[in-house]
Specification:
Layout: E1 2-3, E2 7-9, E3 12-19, E4 22-29, E5 38-42, H1 52-65, E6 68-72, H2 84-98, H3 103-130, E7 140-144, H4 147-158, E8 162-168, H5 176-179, E9 186-191, H6 199-208, E10 214-219, H7 229-242
Parallel strand pairs: 5-6, 5-7, 7-8, 8-9, 9-10
Antiparallel strand pairs: 1-3, 2-3, 3-4, 4-6
Helix pairs in contact: 1-7, 2-3, 3-4
Length: 243
């Protein structure tokens, strides 16, 4: 893991890094020492590791909760090159949506393609970050909605170090079998008027999650209208399960 720089503001230190070909960012409390809980944060489709929502939540989790937070560019996103197969699937997805196709089914094809690479990358980044003295091998959480959920569900199902997760804004039927393997506490977010994900599919994915402790948070509004108070709620959720 190679760090490119380090800046601090409002008590939060930001360190961009690369791990092999994976670009990422680590946020920690300023002058952090010793082991602390770590939250991995997955961004949405077409976004990147420093999308405003990711940065805002990361600063909040670090400043208010004392967590470390790491985010990476998903395959074919952000600073990463876009391959021919990705371009083909993206073109077909946009054409399908323009023709009135089911957005959830079209997006599921993209997520399945990306997840094959993303799961192993998240595992490698988790291992590397936990070797840092100011993070350590403490408890781990995962936050990801929309594509962050689509890539997060298979990652959480495969990774025993993750102990709690905030997921949602997704309902792909292709994830139900994998979701059944998740057993950690889950907070699942639904936008009741989501134009991208049919409500019934979101509820079906929530129902498929195998966790004994899972909570559904439904709010009015469209796909991108997630209320800001859900960040405070997520902080309390992670504090309860990771601290």
């Amino acid at each position: 893991m190679r760090f490119a720089s380090q800046t601090s503001s409002d008590g939060v230190t930001e360190q961009p890094f690369t791990l092999g070909e994976i670009p990422g960012v680590l946020w920690t409390p300023e002058d952090a020492r010793g082991t602390r809980p770590l939250i991995l944060m997955g961004h949405g489709g077409g976004q990147h590791k420093k999308a405003p929502g990711i940065v805002g939540r990361a600063h909040h989790f670090v400043a208010e909760g004392g967590f470390a937070v790491a985010a990476i560019d998903a395959p074919h996103h952000g600073e990463r090159p876009k391959g021919e197969e990705f371009d083909r699937i993206a073109t077909e997805m946009r054409a399908g949506m323009a023709a009135g196709g089911n957005p959830a089914e079209l997006v599921a094809t993209m997520h399945a393609f990306l997840a094959g690479q993303a799961v192993s990358e998240w595992q490698a980044v988790l291992t590397a970050v936990q070797q840092l003295d100011h993070v350590g091998s403490g408890p781990v959480g995962y936050w990801g909605t929309s594509m962050g959920c689509g890539l997060g569900v298979p990652f959480i199902a495969e990774e025993p170090r993750v102990r709690a997760a905030v997921l949602g804004l997704l309902g792909a039927a292709t994830l139900t079998g994998v979701a059944a393997r998740i057993t950690v506490p889950v907070r699942f977010l639904v936008q009741w008027d989501d134009q991208m994900v049919p409500r019934a599919q979101s509820l079906a994915l929530f129902d498929a999650i195998g966790s004994a402790e899972k909570t559904l948070h439904a709010n009015p509004g469209k796909h991108g209208d997630l209320p800001r108070f859900e960040t405070d709620s997520a902080l309390r959720f992670f504090a309860r399960h990771l601290s």
